[in-house]
């Protein structure tokens, strides 16, 4: 199982039956494939609807928040973008799952720009991270060059300040417990020393520190 | 009352260099194609365009960027149109990036006679630069100001001759909000029906907001 | 013709074809009866619709802003109250016609409460007077006890400050021209002296001061 | 997912003395009758109720006033229910009068995660007392703050089992907005249909906002 699938299968266990969830583009989108069978969630799409589903028949009037063709489930509801962000900021989205460039031990997230290099715009990310009840960062533990992405202080421009709830990587799961970055789980075959070596942030270790469980539902990718 | 129907080749009469244009659409989905083409054909330039994103190079408002008609873009995301990024980096075009919830709410305020609103989005980020911060019951907010434009262009799925509009699925997005916030509103539709054919409960933008209807 | 009908017939000439208009309860409602035949207006109702019309068949789901059964015209559109007031404050209502308890020479209006006596609440009046492009006050020139209602300064709590455009009474029509209360018309058989005697405010007299014209359309009441 | 259907006699489990309740309706039109009756029957008191008006003595939320269940009313108009005025004058009940556009926008802010907004309404009147004034581009605005409640009660014409709602004609009024702004939302409907029977474009309140549906 590759790192992305492992992360997606672990994040799938974070979601509760009935949750309204916004999944970011890329890795977070995979999470929907691995939901336990007794968990039904409603996917929110920033451009203006609830009940996002897989493409069934292509309809030029229906795209997801990445501008790609998508489908919808029975009971879907459409609205305008002002209403969409009323839902997002107003605490009506139980969780958002997003990738991260950097997360720091103050629960800050940077994931929208690299000055001088990548300036795509924040789209709905700042509102999602600010407004969702839980912010789950699903990302590979280190950058491609091996540098830690979980830091003492973010170096890139922030997406939001102090809003991250949970970090899931292919090595570990961290929670912010009373504002303290806390290591809760390690991936199978990964030990604390390895996590420490790959993490620049200071963190506590949970008294319940244990091996990561992952969703067994869904086809392997 | 006078007819609101407008031929595509009369759109140019409502355009001028330097004007500001609010547009509906999300990655091109819900952006009025015929109106954008008419703007292209008219040759107007130095536009300020305001909407969610600059779509792709050849969809939505993308062509206006590629063909150098735009002086300034106010949007939330420009990542899928590399021309926007290139021009921004080269300082050939000004780009103001705004969080999506903040942009749509600024436009709504502009259309609703409100001066601005307090949002938690952007606090502690570069978005707060130069903005007033106000704390209410212990929560810090940014004061964001209303935004309007000279013209709004919207895409409707169905319109009646009085200008009542319906949008379809995710193509609704920014359309009903930009229709509130401009001095003039031109709507494009595929299906033009008689007054009374849209049930009052099903109208998404009331006709009184719409000045002209382009049917193609 | 009684005073109210005269006022309503005069106000009817203030409205233009295509206008979106909000008519207050009482005298202002009469205006709709006297519109010239080439003038079609769209009536807005604060509770949330455009296209108010006379009752055709009673529907328990359709009431006007006074809570009374009403009808709607073809092309009517329904919306929620937040959208309704977005229209009102946002300048999408061309004119509102309201009664007044007092108007003063600074274009201030008082029409929502008499302290200690009548405190019904302002409802939508403050938003209408603040947001409508034109505010037309349709009222009898003096109170029942003969006291002037057009004053130097309002004595009652204001509905809005400096927002009145036009005052139509059974004696006269005033406009605020560059902020100056200006007498423009007198009713048939009424002279300037009579208007001065019934008006406490200072006012200019328009160089075009002339006799009031009224709409001849519609059945006499 | 668990069912959202709630029997009328189970409404009381969601009520408690001293709670705040947002209600839909305009002069009783669009106020959920069975829920108001259940509140009456439950015997809860010391309520803060928030909505457009207190209807008539015997319609809408009127009976809650008449039967002494209300400690405070936040509304725009109380003129048609003389009991409200009498209790206010006698200081038996607190009444906060708010301009209608301001009240609905305060509730919308509460539901949309905004701290407040700037409105020109009320400037130069008693409404401005105690409020911050902010001038933007030469226009003076009042800073009005968000408003939420413990519970919102709404009346829908049609609901599906997932809680997607449609309102009918002028009974829409405050309903879709109050459904955004409470910790718990109970909707009453006459027509309960299966999930999928309301077209996604026709939903006026998405089901995710609705906790319980009472069908009568």
From TrEMBL, chains A, C:
Q: What is this protein called?
A: CoA transferase subunit B
Which keywords does UniProt give here? Answer: Transferase
The residues forming the signal peptide are: none
Q: What organism does the UniProt record list as the source? A: Pseudothauera nasutitermitis
- Coiled-coil intervals in this record? none
What family name appears in the similarity comment? Answer: Belongs to the 3-oxoacid CoA-transferase subunit B family.
Q: Where are the transmembrane segments?
A: none
Q: Which InterPro entries match?
A: 3-oxoacid_CoA-transf_B, CoA_trans_fam_I, CoA_transf_AS, NagB/RpiA_transferase-like
PROSITE patterns xrefs: COA_TRANSF_2
Keyword Transferase part of the UniProt annotation: yes
Keyword match Transferase = yes
State any single GO MF term. Answer: CoA-transferase activity
UniProtKB/TrEMBL annotation, chains B, D:
User: Under which EC number(s) is this enzyme classified?
Assistant: 2.8.3.9
EC class (word): transferase
Among PROSITE patterns, the record links this protein to:
COA_TRANSF_1 (PS01273)
Its keywords, alphabetically, are: Transferase
Identify a single GO molecular function assigned to this protein.
Answer: butyrate-acetoacetate CoA-transferase activity
The record's listing under Gene3D superfamilies reads:
Glutaconate Coenzyme A-transferase (3.40.1080.10)
By sequence similarity, the record places it as follows:
Belongs to the 3-oxoacid CoA-transferase subunit A family.
- Protein name per the record: Acetate CoA-transferase subunit alpha
Q: Which organism is it from?
A: Pseudothauera nasutitermitis
Q: Which gene encodes it?
A: atoD
């Amino acid at each position: 199982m590759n790192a992305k699938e492992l992360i997606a299968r672990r994040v799938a266990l974070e979601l509760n039956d009935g949750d309204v969830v916004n999944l970011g583009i890329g890795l977070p989108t995979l999470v929907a494939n691995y939901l336990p069978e007794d968990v039904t969630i409603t996917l929110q799409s920033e451009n203006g609807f609830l009940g996002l589903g897989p493409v069934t028949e292509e309809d030029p009037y229906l795209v997801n928040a990445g501008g790609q063709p998508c489908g919808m489930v029975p009971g879907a509801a459409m609205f305008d973008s002002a209403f969409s962000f009323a839902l997002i900021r107003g605490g009506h989205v139980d969780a958002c799952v997003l990738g991260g460039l950097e997360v720091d031990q103050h629960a800050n997230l940077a994931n929208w720009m690299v000055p001088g290099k990548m300036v795509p715009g924040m789209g709905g990310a700042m509102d999602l991270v600010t407004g969702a009840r839980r912010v789950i960062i699903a990302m590979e533990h280190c950058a491609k060059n091996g540098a830690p992405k979980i830091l003492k202080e973010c170096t890139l421009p922030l997406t939001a300040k102090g809003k991250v709830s949970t970090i899931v990587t292919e090595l570990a799961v961290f929670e912010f417990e009373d504002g303290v970055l806390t290591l809760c789980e390690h991936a199978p075959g990964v030990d604390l020393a390895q996590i420490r070596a790959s993490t620049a942030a200071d963190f506590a270790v949970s008294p319940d520190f244990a091996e990561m469980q992952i969703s067994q539902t869904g086809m392997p990718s | 009352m006078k007819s609101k129907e407008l031929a595509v080749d009369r759109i140019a009469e409502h355009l001028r260099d330097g004007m500001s244009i609010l547009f509906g659409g999300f990655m091109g989905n819900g952006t009025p194609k015929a109106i954008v083409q008419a703007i292209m054909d008219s040759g107007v330039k130095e536009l300020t365009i305001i909407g969610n994103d600059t779509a792709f190079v050849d969809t939505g408002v993308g062509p206006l960027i590629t063909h150098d008609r735009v002086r300034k873009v106010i949007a939330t995301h420009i990542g899928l149109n590399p021309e926007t990024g290139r021009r921004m980096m080269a300082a050939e075009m000004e780009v103001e990036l705004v969080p999506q919830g903040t942009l749509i709410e600024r436009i709504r305020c502009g259309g609703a006679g409100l001066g601005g609103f307090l949002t938690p989005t952007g606090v502690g980020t570069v978005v707060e630069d130069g903005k007033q911060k106000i704390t209410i019951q212990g929560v810090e907010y940014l004061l964001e100001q209303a935004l309007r434009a000279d013209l709004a262009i919207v895409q409707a799925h169905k319109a009646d001759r009085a200008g009542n509009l319906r949008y379809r699925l995710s193509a609704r997005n920014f359309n009903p909000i930009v229709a509130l916030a401009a001095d003039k509103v031109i709507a494009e539709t595929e299906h033009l029906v008689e007054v009374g054919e849209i049930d009052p409960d099903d109208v998404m933008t009331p006709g009184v907001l719409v000045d002209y209807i382009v049917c193609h």
